[in-house]
Amino acid sequence: MPASATLSRTATLDETRRFMHDRLKSIIPEIEIEAKVELAHAIIERKREMNAVILGHNYMEPAVYHSVPDYVGDSLQLASIAAETEADIIVFCGVWFMGETAKVLNPTKTVLVPSDKAGCSLAEGITAQDIQQLKKRFPEAVVVTYVNTYAAAKGESDYCCTSGNADKVLQTLIDQGHNRILFLPDTYLAANTANELQVPYLNAQEEDAAFEAVPADQPLVIGWNAKCEVHELFTPEDVDNVRRQYPDAVILAHPECPPEVMAKVDVAGSTKKMVDYVRDVDAPRYALFTECTMGDNLAAEFPHRNMIRACTLRCKHMNYITLEDTLAGLEKLQYQVELAPDLIERARLPIERMIAIR
Length: 358
Fold this sequence. Notes:
Layout: E1 3-4, H1 13-24, H2 30-50, E2 52-57, H3 62-65, E3 71-73, H4 75-84, E4 89-93, H5 96-105, E5 110-112, H6 128-137, E6 142-146, H7 151-154, E7 159-161, H8 166-175, E8 180-184, H9 187-197, E9 201-203, H10 208-212, E10 220-223, H11 236-245, E11 249-253, H12 259-262, E12 267-268, H13 271-280, E13 285-289, H14 293-301, E14 307-308, H15 323-332, H16 341-356
Parallel strand pairs: 2-3, 2-4, 4-5, 6-7, 6-8, 8-10, 9-10, 11-12, 11-13, 13-14
Antiparallel strand pairs: 1-3
Helix pairs in contact: 1-2, 2-15, 4-5, 5-16, 8-9
């Protein structure tokens, strides 16, 4: 389950101030923390009055992550919470597809995303029509879409997955006898997961002859051509530079990074796996190859750990989520996620299957 935020829903203004200054003092200048305290406290009061729950993704800026969420975690963790919450309102401090996932699981609840600009390059990298065409080309294939897709794409899928359970989902399908698996849309996550399972991988853009060369009774992962606009920028040279400067560092990388990067790092995994590793495994230093705000968040949460924070790659979409917009969202009930009932019905099963496979 996701970690509960340390700051109580009943925290006073002074308690909020003390907590934020103590948690963020090594991450954000004191004057900036003080400027955020009253905003955070106003959000805490408002969510209590409105019976709202706030979910915060690991990539949220520190002032958001370490103040107002009731739960923090990765996509799979937060989807699980969204499926079980008794709150009337769900505020998803993350990007839009995450809010859509929460809405699918809670069609009668109000779901808010603090910014209508918080998109995702992966979610925008494939459409429902693209998947329909792929299903015509590969009619025998089972369709797995990454949770980083919009609801319309999920509605064309058999299963969803996250980076935290992609290997388990694919292995489950292989064990069930599915020998053709469309794994969409992240080409790097698909290739890295196939490599981990020692299963051949081909991109859907390959010629038909390439697919015909793989025997029908052997598993094959078929990918798409979308990439995360942040993770695709990490290079093998970046790994070499960290090794040279910090030879005692453990390097952890998200599987949305290119395969040639993953081949050089020490630990591959979801943001949850990274959090668990930093929390539980003693190492002289830790370097994260993922959205760089996460390094700040872990440095604040685990001050006894030596986090290398030389990364500058930020997700512009995650960066749209601020305390200001979170408060405005609650006050105005703005940027509500709305989905057609038939789409909710189609998208629900693959999401529930994702949650069931841990």
